[in-house]
Amino acid sequence: MDYQVHTLQNGIRLLHKPAVSSIAHCCFLVNAGARDEANGKDGLAHFIEHLLFKATKRRNTEQILNHLEIVGADLNAYTTKEYTCIHASFLKQHLERAIDLTEDIVFHSTFPEEELVKEKSVILDEIASYLDQPDEAIQDDFEDLLFKDHALGRNILGTTDSVTKLGKADIAQFISQNYNTHQMVFAVLGEYDFKRLIKLAEKYFGAIPANASDKNRVKPDITLAETLRFAKPISQTHGVIGTQAYAFSHARKNGLLLLNNILGGMGMTSRLNLQIREKYGIAYSIESNYSAFSDTGIFSIYFGTDTEKAERAIKLIHKELKKLREQKLGTLQLSQAKQKFIGQIALGEENRIGLIIAMAKSLLDYNRVDSLEEVFAKIEAVTADELSDISNEIFDNNRLITLLFEPND
User: Fold this and answer.
1) Non-local CB neighbours of 332 within 8 Å, separated by 6+ positions
2) Nearest of 382, 397, 375, 258 to residue 326 by alpha carbon
């Protein structure tokens, strides 16, 4: 994969992926997320992300929103457990406009009190809306079970109580402790000369003071199997079955990514979809997911079904997990699974904003970005024996937690 990297004196890294197009994309990625919040400050990282769009020393909310939108560009942001990302898409001639705004909102936001009050109300509505979606809410409750009394278990949005109590001092402290310039990447995908990009990066980001504050992330303890059921005002049963999994630097990460795709990943031909939805018509929605963090990960299976079918759905899920533990994939099965996964990854390259964000994250996580050929080679190197070993470790019944939301009538 052709890309270039330049590190500013303050530690901020510039990443460029050349692409011949009239459209360009950029993102500013900070290694700071919900897991970095202090106890009782749930939702702070997400709160800051919202407030970055409200006021800076040079711009008010309307000026921030109009700066790119007036030229037809798109500006957005999101927060995860470990990252905060601001990203934009625009006609390539508006690159400097995008860099100027990005630098302004990340480093010069003023967080006026009246905006804090307004944005708290917006986020409280967001929390209420989220809780009304059981397929979303159960994922957060599952993570709370999986990472008991640990920062990774926190809801990214926070709680009504925690968000209400957040203040300007909390924001300043979080930024000071977590917005480490050595843990920031500004990435650009577009048709640009790299020397010009370096000059622009130096112009807008070069004077930012270095911040080398240390992360204080603690690895969570392993949790043992349990089954919990909660009655909710819903019409269907929703369930999650899963456990802690590998960190993003683990040698078996690629094997679990492939295994997850086989079991319940993208497409209609995953084992869970074919066996549970297509063959038996039990679950309208069923999928598996694997998310890797810096020191752990999450593997989970989600399903939604009529309450009278829930127990059978659970049995069929465990039947598929048992097959993977006890039956190695044949040569043809493994080859087909790899080709399917490789094809999906290649198609994902067409999502240009997703691509540049993934590259920025890779630079933060590994200090390098693998080419597609290197990614494919890692997938091709996965063996049937390795998948069997991973299945017996991750799908061990002694580790699987089951959480069910059931109708309360």
Assistant:
1) none
2) 397
Catalogue all structural domains in the chain, each as residue range(s) with its CATH number: 4-205 (3.30.830.10), 226-407 (3.30.830.10)
Per the CB < 8 A criterion, the answer to whether 119 and 48 are in contact is no
How far is it, in rounded angstroms, from Cα 287 to Cα 304? 10
Alpha helices in 179-238 (DSSP H): 194-205
How far, in Å, CA of 242 to CA of 399, rounded? 8
Give the span between the Cα atoms of 240 and 61, in whole angstroms: 40
Structure tokens at 115: 């905006």
pLDDT tens sequence across 382-400: 999 999 999 999 999 999 9
The predicted model scores a pTM of: 0.94
Structure tokens at 282: 């039990």
Other beta carbons within 10 Å of 249: 11
Question: What is the token pair recorded at 336?
Answer: 């087909």
Measured in Å, how far apart are the chain's first and last C-alpha atoms? 55
